Amino acid sequence: MIAFIRRHPATSYFLLAITISWVGILAIVLPTTLPAPESEAARLFMAVYLAMLAGPTIAGLTITALAGGRDGLRTFWKRLFVGRVGMRWYATALFVAPLAIGVTLLALSLVSSDFVPAILTGDAATAGLLPVETRSAFVLTGLAVGVGAGFFEELGWSGVAVPHMLAQRKLMATGVRVGLVWGAWHFLAIYWGSADAVGSVPAPVYLLVALFSFLVPFRILMTWVYQNTRSTLIGVLMHASLTSSMLILGPPVSGYELLTYDLAFGAVLWIAVAIVHGKRLRELASQPDVDSHPALQGLYGKP
Length: 303
Fold this sequence. Notes:
Elements: H1 2-7, H2 9-29, H3 38-80, H4 87-109, H5 118-121, E1 125-126, E2 130-131, H6 135-154, H7 157-166, H8 171-185, H9 187-192, H10 203-212, H11 215-229, H12 232-249, H13 255-286, H14 294-300
Antiparallel strand pairs: 1-2
Helix pairs in contact: 2-3, 2-7, 3-6, 3-7, 4-11, 4-12, 4-13, 6-12, 7-8, 7-11, 8-11, 11-12, 11-13
C-alpha cells in the first residue's frame, strides 16, 4: 500500500479524499430524503459541509506524510505559507472569479432580470441552504463558507494533487484531470442539495453541468497560477474567492435558468483559459529556449 501511494500520490489522494467525504456525507444524509428538501438541506448544511471538507484535508495530510515523510510535510507547509509572490498573483487569485461572474451576470441580465444577483434584489438566501435576514449577514455567510472551503479543500487539491501531477504532466493536462476529479468529488453533496435547484431539468443533465461546466476551466486557471507561484496559499485565496463570489453574487434562479447561468459562467472561464494559453504560446514563440522560461515549462514539459 505504501509503495503504491509513493508511486501514485495524486491517484491515492483522489481515492482517499472521495472516500472520506462521501462516507461522511452518507452517514449524515442517508436517514433523510435524497435529494433533500430545502428545510432539510438548511438543517444539515453545516454537517454536510464539514464532512466534505474532511476528505481533502485528511487525505492531503495523510498522503503527504506517507509519500514524503517529514521532508514531504515540511515542503507541504512551506508551500502553504508562501506569500511573497507578487501582487499581480494576489489580484488574479482574488478577482478572476468575481469578474467572470460579473461579466456572466451582466450579459444574462440583458436578456432577463431574473439574473440580477440576489443580494441586489433583497432575496436573502444563500444558495437556498443558509437563510439569513440581512445583506450584511448574507455577505458574511458567503465569505465564511468560501474561506473554509478554500482553506481546507486546497490542502489537498493545490497542496498535493496539482504539484504531483505537474511533475509528470503539462499544465493543461493537469488542470483538466484535477478539474474533472474535483467536479466528481462534489457529486454527492450537489445531488443531495439539488431538490429545489434542479427544477424541470433532468437530474443527470443538471448534475453534468453543475459539476463540470465551470469547475474544470477554473481549475485550469488555478493550476496556471500555482505553476507560476508554487504557493498553496494563492490556491486557497483563489478557491475562496470562487465559492464566496458564487454565493454572494449568484442570481436567485433554478432549473433551466440555473443551467444557463452555469454554462455561461463556464464559457467565460474557457475564454479566460484560451487567453492564458494564447499568451503562453506567444511567449514560447518569442523565446525558443523553453528551459530559459520556467513559467512555460509546465505547459510543454515537466515543470
